[in-house]
Design a protein that fits this description.
heterodimer, B: 98 residues, mainly beta, 1 helix, oxidoreductase activity (chain A), BFD-like_2Fe2S-bd_dom_sf (chain A), Metab_Enz_Cyan_OpOx_G3PDH (chain A), oxidoreductase (chain A)
Chain lengths: 459, 98
């Protein structure tokens, strides 16, 4: 007898949608999320930020889902960290408010979302250099904006969205766009998906026009951005130019957050288009482990609308597997959702082609820091690879990359790309880092408290 | 170099950053409080002592490790502010305490 029919990790669009759907099939549902409020990244702090004119329009589409999730009857555990998952036993080890706790579930849906791709450029460890996502989090959670000279460097839809949101909040930024793929080349590579995704594309073009109209200055096609300054960023420079800078916001797209899916040993595949690893999954999110499903951006970047459909599909699959949904009803319910997800994914090919990250972002120059925690340069990683470090797991013994506080969350993609390059292999031929539990630090006191609870329960 | 927008989100929660009172909006994290206090660096790295500020603010990078209410090495971006919270920067590596 397990505590819950379904445990969902993450309260973003996929997790919330999965919870609502699973509850509507009568399943008992636990949702574990690290943040204080539901929404994930795209709808982070949606309820609190809805009235802020800077971010309100972007957050509004998420409010009905947040409300449905709040009213779903799922057991919702915010500000809670999953630090171990025993997939075979369905046992989840959680930590919250200084306490550790174990719960069990018949099925587990990982809806861990996306993280920003690391952007290792010279000077990116200087205080004042942040990600574009971080600036959005400042806006959504607290209405806070950077002051002084604000520069956005990179590419992707988020750069333009953020430039507009900052402008609405009274901050005129400078955008240094690193995009080198032309619209025509991206269209040619994407094929037929563009027509189906025209609504999203029109939105993107409107954003770019809106940013310029609001006074955002734009330099396109820049190469070799670097942060400079003494003790903090004071200037951003690129090939053929420079500008004063108090806050530098970097962005080169997002990648699936696969820390947990890799730690529990799910099968992963290299996604060459998005230059990232993703867990292998069937149409309903079923992974290589019979108890575990993956849904949303954590299973491959597709955006929130695709994530909502994926979350519902994974929940319906859970209901079928647990005997709460007959096969014919399952087929009827999923057919529409599969079509909705396919439509939502249709512009991806174009977006991925248009915003392909530059080679220097994936595998930076020798003097650039690759591992921020242990302060290891790309050159040191390349040397270790030539000495015999065959992958990120082996490199730990050489340079400690992946053993610092972030446990490889940030450096693993860069380290793997550098090793592949030094060894003359394709990126997918170097096995990704295998994270270990605890997935996030827990104190000895928390573990001791958990053990006491277990002992008392056994008496 | 960050500022609040009182018309959108008034700063109502008082916390102590390095002992100095700072007013921050409800819902902000301890890392945001450090930024609003005007400090660009939140810690000095254990390896080289270089200054480091928050990078991602979403729990990925661990650059914002700080001592919060006496507990060291906490991800300041993942801890929402509460009235009277004490937030201190970290210099170098932590020492094990009995």
């Amino acid at each position: 007898m397990t505590d819950f029919d379904v445990a969902i990790i993450g309260a973003g669009p996929a997790g919330m949608a999965a919870a609502v759907e699973a509850r509507s099939r009568g399943l008992s549902v636990l949702v574990v999320d690290e943040n204080a409020a539901p929404g994930g990244q795209v709808f982070r702090a949606a309820e609190a930020a809805a009235q802020d004119p800077a971010v309100g329009p972007a957050i509004a589409p998420g409010l009905p889902l947040v409300a449905a999730f709040r009213g779903s009857g799922a057991t919702y555990r915010p500000a809670t960290t999953l630090w171990h998952l025993d997939a075979d036993e369905g046992a989840l080890s959680l930590a919250a408010h200084g306490r550790a706790e174990d719960v069990t579930a018949s099925r587990v849906i990982l809806a861990t979302g996306a993280q920003e791709r690391p952007v290792p450029i010279p000077g990116w460890t200087l205080p004042g250099v942040m990600t574009a996502g971080a600036a959005q989090i400042l806006l959504k959670t607290a209405g806070v904006v950077p002051s002084g000279a604000v520069v956005l460097a990179g590419q992707g839809p988020l750069v333009w969205l953020l430039a507009v949101q900052l402008a609405r909040a009274g901050v005129a930024s400078l955008v240094l766009e690193t995009r080198t793929t032309s619209l025509a080349a991206a269209l040619a590579r994407a094929g037929g998906g563009v027509w189906a995704g025209r609504r999203l594309l029109a939105k993107g073009l409107a954003l770019m026009a809106g940013a310029r109209r609001r006074g955002v200055r734009v330099v396109t096609g820049i190469r070799g951005p670097r942060a400079e300054g003494e003790g903090r960023v004071q200037r951003v420079a690129w090939e053929g130019g420079s500008a004063p800078c108090d806050t530098l916001l970097l962005h080169e797209g997002v990648i699936p957050s696969t820390h947990v899916s890799r730690a529990i040993g799910l099968e992963h595949e290299w996604d060459a288009t998005q230059a990232c690893w993703r867990p292998v999954a069937d149409a309903f999110g079923g992974s290589s482990h019979p108890r575990i499903a993956v849904a949303g951006d954590g299973a491959g970047i597709g955006g929130w609308e695709a994530a909502v459909a994926a979350g519902r599909l994974a929940a319906l699959d859970a209901a079928r597997r647990l005997g709460a949904l007959a096969e014919d009803a399952f087929a009827a319910r999923t057919a529409t959702l599969l079509a909705v997800r396919a439509a939502a994914l249709s512009p991806r090919g174009f977006l991925d082609a248009l915003y392909a990250p530059p080679a220097a972002v994936l595998a930076p120059a020798d003097d650039v820091i690759a591992c921020r925690c242990e302060e290891v340069t790309a050159g040191a990683v390349r040397r270790a690879a030539r000495l015999g470090a065959t992958g990120p797991n082996q490199l730990k013994a050489y340079l400690r990359c992946g053993m610092g506080p972030c446990q490889g969350r940030l450096c693993a993609p860069t380290v793997a790309a550098l090793i592949a390059e030094a060894r003359g292999l394709a990126p997918g031929e170097v096995a990704p880092l295998r994270p270990r539990a605890p997935y996030k630090p827990v104190t000895v006191g928390m573990l001791a408290g958990g053990a006491e609870t277990l002992q008392q329960g056994g008496k | 170099m960050f500022r609040t927008r009182p018309d959108a989100r008034p700063a109502t929660v008082e916390v102590l950053v390095e002992g100095t009172p700072v007013l921050v909006p409800e819902g902000a994290s301890a890392a945001v409080a450090v930024l609003l206090a005007g400090l660009s660096a939140i810690r000095e790295m254990p390896v080289t002592g270089s200054p480091r500020g928050p990078l991602c603010l979403m729990g990925v990078c661990f650059d914002c490790l700080a001592e919060i209410d006496g507990v060291p090495n906490r991800q300041a971006c993942m801890v929402p502010v509460a009235p009277g919270m004490r937030i201190a920067r970290q210099r170098g590596a932590r020492e094990a305490r009995p």
